[in-house]
Design goal:
Layout (H helix, E strand, L loop, with lengths): L1 E2 L2 H4 L3 E6 L5 H4 L18 E6 L12 E2 L2 E2 L13 E2 L2 E12 L2 E14 L2 E2 L18 E3 L2 E4 L12 E8 L5 E9 L7 H14 L11 H7 L5 E8 L4 H5 L7 E8 L5 E8 L1
Parallel strand pairs: 2-14, 4-10, 5-16
Antiparallel strand pairs: 1-11, 2-3, 6-9, 7-8, 7-14, 8-10, 8-11, 12-13, 12-15, 15-16
InterPro entries: DUF5718
């Protein structure tokens, strides 16, 4: 296991993969947003930014916390903003550049990540739901040190789970406990696909996607990135329950039958 250095990660880029676990977008009510996006077979729908060093607006605000999840301000009409945990694997990668093009992603660690989202129907871009300032994203303090993402490699025995703890002190399953190999795209296939999207995804006004490759160049060509590779399906409780102050959001990546784990616990405030 390795300890993550949050101050150092302020220089990293943060982006995510949308639609990499069958059924999640439908449960989150976001499938309609991608009606104009064409993807091949079981491929994810696209990539999106959630943090850019020195970036514009909220995307330039460092959102990561290992212990706290801060709720955003209410809507202008006073109605609440509905937040859901997005239980994901966070993949720490070195970025190899060839001029203004990302040539390769080199993973060196992975662990628990909460790509917490505001359920904001009709938001123009995915990034509009992802970063509302400090403590709006979660990352475990410790990651598995790993570079082999092959189906038979060390990740073949890793699983991802998500729990919600409320005032009763009980922990309830919020996400469906899933093997990492359950992702639609994983391993080198996923890395190659992301590199392709960084080069070729341009975005358009009629889709929720953006030109993430150009945004990375504008951010000064970061040499590292934390990539959320997609959220699992929700349990019935997770699909119907929004976060409220006092909750504890828990995301855990662990090895079957082994105590070693990457654990993220955030108190909602």
């Amino acid at each position: 296991m390795i300890e993550l250095d949050l101050p150092e990660m302020r220089t990293w880029a943060g982006f995510g993969v949308a639609g990499n676990f069958a059924g999640h977008l439908e449960q989150a009510g976001e499938a309609v947003d991608f009606a104009g996006v064409v993807s091949e077979g079981e491929a994810p729908k696209g990539i999106f930014p959630w943090y850019l060093p020195g970036g514009p607006g909220l995307l330039g605000q460092f959102p990561l916390s290992t212990s706290r999840l801060r709720t955003p301000e209410a809507n202008a009409d006073g109605s609440p903003l509905n937040l859901q945990i997005e239980p994901e694997v966070g993949l720490a990668c070195r970025i190899a550049w060839d001029g203004d093009t990302v040539a390769a992603l080199e993973p060196f660690a992975l662990g628990a990540f909460n790509d917490c989202s505001i359920r904001r129907p009709g938001a123009p871009k995915i990034s509009d739901k992802k970063n509302w300032g400090p403590d709006s994203k979660g990352v475990a303090p410790r990651f598995f040190e790993i570079s082999d993402l092959s189906p038979t490699g060390p990740t073949s025995k890793l699983r991802l789970e998500c729990l919600l703890e409320r005032g009763d002190g009980q922990r309830h399953a919020y996400g469906v406990n899933s093997p990492l190999q359950g992702y639609s795209y994983f391993g080198q296939r996923l890395l190659d696909w992301i590199v392709d999207r960084l080069a070729n995804q341009k975005g358009s006004p009629d889709t929720p996607l953006e030109d993430v490759g150009a945004l990375l160049v504008a951010a000064g060509r970061p040499t590292h990135a934390l990539i959320g590779i997609g959220a699992t399906r929700y349990t019935e409780l997770g699909a119907s329950t929004y976060l409220r102050p006092g909750d504890t959001a828990i995301v855990r990546v662990y090895e079957e039958d082994v105590p070693a784990a990457s654990v993220l616990e955030q108190t909602v405030s």
